Automatic annotation (TrEMBL):
Binds 1 Fe cation per subunit. The keyword Metal-binding applies. This is Pirin. Pfam families: Pirin, Pirin_C. The lineage of its organism: Bacteria, Pseudomonadati, Pseudomonadota, Betaproteobacteria, Burkholderiales. Residues 211-314 form the Pirin C-terminal domain. Coiled coil: none annotated. Residues 54-143 form the Pirin N-terminal domain. GO terms for molecular function: metal ion binding. Keywords: Iron, Metal-binding. Fe cation binds at residues 77, 79, 121, 123. Its cofactor is Fe cation. Belongs to the pirin family. It comes from Simplicispira metamorpha.
Length: 349
Protein backbone atom coordinates (compact mmCIF):
# COMPACT_ATOMS: atom_id res chain seq x y z
CA UNK A 1 0.00 0.00 0.00
CA UNK A 2 1.40 3.42 -0.94
CA UNK A 3 1.90 6.41 1.32
CA UNK A 4 -0.86 8.20 -0.60
CA UNK A 5 -3.32 5.48 0.33
CA UNK A 6 -2.48 5.50 4.03
CA UNK A 7 -2.27 9.27 4.75
CA UNK A 8 -6.06 9.65 4.76
CA UNK A 9 -7.94 6.95 6.64
CA UNK A 10 -11.47 8.24 6.05
CA UNK A 11 -13.12 11.12 4.18
CA UNK A 12 -16.49 12.62 5.09
CA UNK A 13 -18.37 15.64 3.74
CA UNK A 14 -18.65 18.87 5.72
CA UNK A 15 -22.28 19.40 6.68
CA UNK A 16 -23.84 21.71 9.29
CA UNK A 17 -22.16 19.65 12.03
CA UNK A 18 -18.72 18.26 11.35
CA UNK A 19 -17.90 14.64 12.26
CA UNK A 20 -15.56 14.20 15.22
CA UNK A 21 -13.49 11.50 16.91
CA UNK A 22 -13.20 10.66 20.62
CA UNK A 23 -12.32 12.67 22.77
CA UNK A 24 -14.30 15.28 20.78
CA UNK A 25 -18.09 15.17 20.70
CA UNK A 26 -19.19 17.94 18.39
CA UNK A 27 -17.85 20.59 16.02
CA UNK A 28 -20.06 23.31 14.57
CA UNK A 29 -18.90 25.92 12.07
CA UNK A 30 -21.12 29.01 12.24
CA UNK A 31 -20.59 31.36 9.29
CA UNK A 32 -23.30 34.03 9.23
CA UNK A 33 -23.41 37.05 6.92
CA UNK A 34 -25.49 39.19 9.26
CA UNK A 35 -26.81 42.49 7.83
CA UNK A 36 -26.56 45.89 9.43
CA UNK A 37 -27.92 46.12 12.95
CA UNK A 38 -31.23 47.70 13.92
CA UNK A 39 -29.85 49.75 16.81
CA UNK A 40 -31.07 47.19 19.36
CA UNK A 41 -28.41 44.51 18.62
CA UNK A 42 -30.62 42.59 16.19
CA UNK A 43 -30.70 42.55 12.38
CA UNK A 44 -32.28 45.38 10.41
CA UNK A 45 -34.27 42.84 8.40
CA UNK A 46 -37.69 41.18 8.58
CA UNK A 47 -37.63 38.17 10.91
CA UNK A 48 -41.03 36.56 10.48
CA UNK A 49 -41.07 35.54 6.82
CA UNK A 50 -39.41 32.16 6.36
CA UNK A 51 -37.94 31.88 9.85
CA UNK A 52 -39.05 29.68 12.73
CA UNK A 53 -38.33 32.15 15.47
CA UNK A 54 -36.79 30.62 18.57
CA UNK A 55 -35.33 27.79 16.51
CA UNK A 56 -34.14 29.35 13.26
CA UNK A 57 -31.29 27.44 11.64
CA UNK A 58 -32.53 28.29 8.15
CA UNK A 59 -29.51 30.27 6.85
CA UNK A 60 -32.06 32.34 4.96
CA UNK A 61 -30.23 35.24 3.29
CA UNK A 62 -26.99 33.69 4.58
CA UNK A 63 -27.67 33.87 8.31
CA UNK A 64 -29.70 32.37 11.14
CA UNK A 65 -31.25 33.65 14.36
CA UNK A 66 -30.70 30.26 16.07
CA UNK A 67 -32.63 30.36 19.35
CA UNK A 68 -32.59 34.15 19.60
CA UNK A 69 -35.88 36.02 19.32
CA UNK A 70 -34.57 39.57 18.79
CA UNK A 71 -30.79 39.14 18.92
CA UNK A 72 -29.22 36.15 17.16
CA UNK A 73 -27.59 33.52 19.31
CA UNK A 74 -28.29 31.03 22.05
CA UNK A 75 -30.13 32.35 25.14
CA UNK A 76 -29.66 30.69 28.52
CA UNK A 77 -29.27 26.90 28.41
CA UNK A 78 -27.59 24.29 30.64
CA UNK A 79 -24.58 21.97 30.19
CA UNK A 80 -23.11 19.12 32.22
CA UNK A 81 -20.32 16.60 31.71
CA UNK A 82 -18.11 18.13 28.99
CA UNK A 83 -16.33 21.30 27.81
CA UNK A 84 -17.02 23.92 25.16
CA UNK A 85 -14.19 25.56 23.24
CA UNK A 86 -15.33 28.50 21.11
CA UNK A 87 -12.96 29.97 18.50
CA UNK A 88 -14.19 33.24 16.99
CA UNK A 89 -12.76 34.10 13.57
CA UNK A 90 -14.71 37.34 13.09
CA UNK A 91 -17.53 39.13 14.83
CA UNK A 92 -18.35 39.30 18.54
CA UNK A 93 -19.99 37.00 21.11
CA UNK A 94 -21.56 38.11 24.38
CA UNK A 95 -21.21 35.42 27.06
CA UNK A 96 -23.05 35.31 30.41
CA UNK A 97 -23.27 32.39 32.83
CA UNK A 98 -24.62 31.12 36.12
CA UNK A 99 -21.18 31.52 37.73
CA UNK A 100 -21.56 35.29 37.29
CA UNK A 101 -18.96 35.41 34.54
CA UNK A 102 -19.42 37.67 31.52
CA UNK A 103 -17.41 38.38 28.39
CA UNK A 104 -17.48 40.03 25.01
CA UNK A 105 -14.94 38.37 22.76
CA UNK A 106 -14.13 37.89 19.09
CA UNK A 107 -11.62 38.45 16.32
CA UNK A 108 -9.41 35.45 17.10
CA UNK A 109 -10.24 35.05 20.80
CA UNK A 110 -11.05 31.65 22.31
CA UNK A 111 -13.33 30.89 25.24
CA UNK A 112 -12.90 27.61 27.10
CA UNK A 113 -15.56 26.43 29.57
CA UNK A 114 -15.58 23.28 31.68
CA UNK A 115 -19.25 22.61 32.36
CA UNK A 116 -18.41 19.83 34.81
CA UNK A 117 -21.20 19.24 37.31
CA UNK A 118 -23.34 21.87 35.64
CA UNK A 119 -23.75 25.48 34.64
CA UNK A 120 -26.04 27.64 32.56
CA UNK A 121 -24.80 30.12 29.99
CA UNK A 122 -25.94 32.24 27.07
CA UNK A 123 -24.07 33.04 23.86
CA UNK A 124 -25.51 36.01 21.99
CA UNK A 125 -24.27 37.56 18.75
CA UNK A 126 -24.88 41.35 19.04
CA UNK A 127 -25.01 43.26 15.76
CA UNK A 128 -23.36 46.52 16.79
CA UNK A 129 -22.87 48.21 13.43
CA UNK A 130 -26.07 49.85 12.16
CA UNK A 131 -24.45 51.15 8.96
CA UNK A 132 -22.68 48.07 7.59
CA UNK A 133 -22.89 44.25 7.66
CA UNK A 134 -21.97 42.36 10.85
CA UNK A 135 -20.33 39.09 9.68
CA UNK A 136 -19.81 36.38 12.31
CA UNK A 137 -17.73 33.23 11.95
CA UNK A 138 -16.81 30.80 14.71
CA UNK A 139 -16.13 27.21 15.60
CA UNK A 140 -17.69 25.64 18.65
CA UNK A 141 -16.06 22.41 19.71
CA UNK A 142 -17.32 20.09 22.44
CA UNK A 143 -14.57 18.16 24.24
CA UNK A 144 -15.61 15.25 26.42
CA UNK A 145 -14.60 14.82 30.06
CA UNK A 146 -13.56 11.46 31.50
CA UNK A 147 -15.90 9.91 34.06
CA UNK A 148 -13.68 10.97 36.96
CA UNK A 149 -14.02 14.67 35.98
CA UNK A 150 -17.61 14.88 34.78
CA UNK A 151 -18.72 16.36 38.11
CA UNK A 152 -15.78 18.77 38.35
CA UNK A 153 -16.31 22.34 39.49
CA UNK A 154 -17.24 24.49 36.47
CA UNK A 155 -14.45 26.65 35.08
CA UNK A 156 -14.44 29.70 32.78
CA UNK A 157 -11.42 31.14 31.01
CA UNK A 158 -10.50 33.31 28.04
CA UNK A 159 -7.59 32.95 25.63
CA UNK A 160 -7.13 36.39 24.11
CA UNK A 161 -6.06 36.43 20.48
CA UNK A 162 -2.96 38.48 21.33
CA UNK A 163 -1.61 35.71 23.61
CA UNK A 164 -2.39 32.59 21.58
CA UNK A 165 0.86 31.03 20.26
CA UNK A 166 1.39 30.96 16.52
CA UNK A 167 3.90 29.30 14.23
CA UNK A 168 4.90 31.36 11.18
CA UNK A 169 6.62 28.99 8.75
CA UNK A 170 8.25 29.99 5.45
CA UNK A 171 8.94 27.16 3.04
CA UNK A 172 11.87 27.00 0.59
CA UNK A 173 10.00 29.29 -1.80
CA UNK A 174 9.22 31.81 0.93
CA UNK A 175 5.52 30.95 1.02
CA UNK A 176 3.92 31.26 4.43
CA UNK A 177 1.96 28.87 6.62
CA UNK A 178 0.51 30.16 9.89
CA UNK A 179 -0.53 27.69 12.59
CA UNK A 180 -2.59 29.06 15.49
CA UNK A 181 -2.15 26.84 18.55
CA UNK A 182 -5.21 26.92 20.80
CA UNK A 183 -4.15 23.72 22.57
CA UNK A 184 -1.35 21.19 22.25
CA UNK A 185 2.39 21.70 21.98
CA UNK A 186 3.78 22.33 18.50
CA UNK A 187 7.55 22.45 17.81
CA UNK A 188 8.64 25.97 16.99
CA UNK A 189 6.01 27.75 19.08
CA UNK A 190 5.87 29.02 22.63
CA UNK A 191 4.33 26.77 25.28
CA UNK A 192 0.56 26.54 24.77
CA UNK A 193 -1.81 28.36 27.10
CA UNK A 194 -2.92 26.17 29.99
CA UNK A 195 -6.30 24.50 29.50
CA UNK A 196 -8.72 24.27 32.45
CA UNK A 197 -7.31 22.07 35.21
CA UNK A 198 -9.89 19.26 34.93
CA UNK A 199 -9.83 19.15 31.14
CA UNK A 200 -8.80 16.03 29.23
CA UNK A 201 -6.47 18.46 27.44
CA UNK A 202 -4.67 19.07 30.76
CA UNK A 203 -3.55 15.42 30.91
CA UNK A 204 0.01 15.22 29.46
CA UNK A 205 -0.57 11.89 27.75
CA UNK A 206 -3.93 12.92 26.23
CA UNK A 207 -2.12 14.69 23.35
CA UNK A 208 -5.08 17.00 22.71
CA UNK A 209 -4.45 19.59 20.01
CA UNK A 210 -6.67 22.27 18.53
CA UNK A 211 -4.93 24.10 15.70
CA UNK A 212 -6.01 26.25 12.78
CA UNK A 213 -3.86 26.29 9.63
CA UNK A 214 -3.55 28.99 6.98
CA UNK A 215 -1.45 28.11 3.92
CA UNK A 216 -0.72 30.75 1.31
CA UNK A 217 -1.09 29.68 -2.33
CA UNK A 218 1.67 27.22 -3.16
CA UNK A 219 2.81 26.92 0.47
CA UNK A 220 4.02 23.65 1.98
CA UNK A 221 4.16 22.66 5.64
CA UNK A 222 4.75 19.35 7.39
CA UNK A 223 2.02 18.25 9.78
CA UNK A 224 4.04 16.54 12.52
CA UNK A 225 3.34 13.05 13.86
CA UNK A 226 1.42 12.78 17.12
CA UNK A 227 1.91 10.52 20.14
CA UNK A 228 1.13 6.83 19.88
CA UNK A 229 -2.60 6.17 20.17
CA UNK A 230 -3.66 9.67 19.09
CA UNK A 231 -6.42 10.10 16.51
CA UNK A 232 -6.51 13.17 14.29
CA UNK A 233 -9.13 14.91 12.16
CA UNK A 234 -8.18 17.60 9.64
CA UNK A 235 -11.06 19.72 8.37
CA UNK A 236 -10.31 21.35 5.00
CA UNK A 237 -12.89 24.13 4.71
CA UNK A 238 -11.37 27.01 2.72
CA UNK A 239 -9.37 26.92 -0.51
CA UNK A 240 -9.36 25.41 -3.98
CA UNK A 241 -6.54 22.87 -3.77
CA UNK A 242 -4.99 20.76 -1.01
CA UNK A 243 -2.55 17.86 -1.21
CA UNK A 244 -1.90 15.66 1.83
CA UNK A 245 1.20 13.58 1.32
CA UNK A 246 0.79 12.46 -2.31
CA UNK A 247 -3.00 12.54 -2.19
CA UNK A 248 -4.94 15.42 -3.79
CA UNK A 249 -8.07 16.13 -1.75
CA UNK A 250 -10.92 16.60 -4.25
CA UNK A 251 -12.90 19.12 -2.21
CA UNK A 252 -13.68 20.46 1.24
CA UNK A 253 -13.97 17.53 3.64
CA UNK A 254 -13.33 16.09 7.09
CA UNK A 255 -10.27 13.86 6.83
CA UNK A 256 -9.18 11.34 9.42
CA UNK A 257 -5.40 11.43 9.05
CA UNK A 258 -2.93 8.75 10.06
CA UNK A 259 -1.33 10.53 13.03
CA UNK A 260 1.58 8.11 13.37
CA UNK A 261 3.85 9.91 10.90
CA UNK A 262 4.62 13.29 9.39
CA UNK A 263 2.63 14.37 6.33
CA UNK A 264 3.45 17.17 3.92
CA UNK A 265 0.58 19.58 3.28
CA UNK A 266 0.67 21.50 0.01
CA UNK A 267 -1.64 24.27 -1.15
CA UNK A 268 -2.02 23.41 -4.83
CA UNK A 269 -4.61 26.08 -5.58
CA UNK A 270 -4.75 29.79 -6.29
CA UNK A 271 -6.41 30.75 -3.00
CA UNK A 272 -5.34 30.44 0.62
CA UNK A 273 -6.13 27.08 2.25
CA UNK A 274 -7.53 26.96 5.77
CA UNK A 275 -7.93 23.88 7.95
CA UNK A 276 -8.91 23.03 11.50
CA UNK A 277 -7.10 20.19 13.28
CA UNK A 278 -8.63 18.34 16.24
CA UNK A 279 -6.64 15.50 17.76
CA UNK A 280 -6.35 13.57 20.99
CA UNK A 281 -5.99 10.20 22.61
CA UNK A 282 -9.48 8.71 22.97
CA UNK A 283 -11.06 8.69 26.41
CA UNK A 284 -12.57 5.34 25.39
CA UNK A 285 -15.52 5.41 27.79
CA UNK A 286 -19.24 4.99 27.11
CA UNK A 287 -21.02 8.17 26.02
CA UNK A 288 -24.64 8.86 26.96
CA UNK A 289 -25.97 12.15 25.64
CA UNK A 290 -29.27 13.95 25.91
CA UNK A 291 -29.13 17.42 24.41
CA UNK A 292 -26.79 19.54 26.55
CA UNK A 293 -25.89 16.72 28.99
CA UNK A 294 -23.08 14.24 28.24
CA UNK A 295 -22.49 11.50 30.78
CA UNK A 296 -21.50 7.80 30.77
CA UNK A 297 -24.87 6.15 31.47
CA UNK A 298 -28.57 6.83 30.94
CA UNK A 299 -29.02 6.81 34.71
CA UNK A 300 -26.54 9.70 34.96
CA UNK A 301 -28.44 11.56 32.25
CA UNK A 302 -31.66 11.16 34.24
CA UNK A 303 -29.86 12.42 37.34
CA UNK A 304 -28.56 15.43 35.41
CA UNK A 305 -32.09 16.31 34.31
CA UNK A 306 -33.39 15.92 37.85
CA UNK A 307 -30.55 18.04 39.27
CA UNK A 308 -31.18 20.76 36.71
CA UNK A 309 -34.89 20.87 37.51
CA UNK A 310 -34.23 21.10 41.24
CA UNK A 311 -31.17 23.40 41.34
CA UNK A 312 -31.04 25.20 37.97
CA UNK A 313 -27.28 24.59 38.31
CA UNK A 314 -26.96 27.58 40.60
CA UNK A 315 -29.69 29.73 39.09
CA UNK A 316 -29.54 32.58 36.59
CA UNK A 317 -28.23 35.90 37.97
CA UNK A 318 -29.02 37.96 34.86
CA UNK A 319 -32.22 40.02 34.31
CA UNK A 320 -32.80 38.53 30.85
CA UNK A 321 -32.32 35.14 29.23
CA UNK A 322 -30.27 36.73 26.43
CA UNK A 323 -27.99 39.40 27.98
CA UNK A 324 -26.10 41.75 25.68
CA UNK A 325 -23.19 43.78 27.00
CA UNK A 326 -23.78 47.25 25.62
CA UNK A 327 -23.10 49.13 22.37
CA UNK A 328 -19.31 49.48 22.58
CA UNK A 329 -17.32 47.08 20.41
CA UNK A 330 -14.69 46.44 23.07
CA UNK A 331 -13.63 43.01 24.29
CA UNK A 332 -13.55 42.16 27.98
CA UNK A 333 -14.04 39.36 30.48
CA UNK A 334 -15.36 39.38 34.05
CA UNK A 335 -14.47 36.22 35.90
CA UNK A 336 -16.63 34.44 38.51
CA UNK A 337 -16.55 36.13 41.90
CA UNK A 338 -14.91 39.29 40.53
CA UNK A 339 -16.39 42.70 39.85
CA UNK A 340 -13.59 44.10 37.68
CA UNK A 341 -13.14 43.58 33.97
CA UNK A 342 -10.13 41.94 32.38
CA UNK A 343 -9.20 43.40 29.00
CA UNK A 344 -7.12 41.93 26.21
CA UNK A 345 -3.41 42.77 26.40
CA UNK A 346 -2.45 46.14 24.97
CA UNK A 347 -0.30 45.49 21.91
CA UNK A 348 -0.03 49.15 20.84
CA UNK A 349 2.79 50.09 23.20
Amino acid sequence: MTAAATAILTTQPLGPLWPTLDPFLFCAHHDDAYPAGNGAFGPAAPLLAGRQMGSDFSRQDGWSMYHGQAVPGFPVHPHRGFETVTLVRQGLIDHSDSLGAAARFGGGDVQWITAGKGLQHSEMFPLLDASAPNPLELFQVWLNLPARNKMATPHFTMFWNERIPRLIHHDDQGRTTTVTVVAGALPGTAAPLAPPPESWAAQPDADVAIWTLHLAPGATWTLPAAQAGTRRMLYYFVGDGLRLGLHDVPGHAALEVDARQDWLLTNTGTQAVECLVLQGRPIAEPVAQYGPFVMNTQQEIMQAMQDYRSTQFGGWPWPASDPVHGPQARRFARYPGQDHEVLPPDTTA
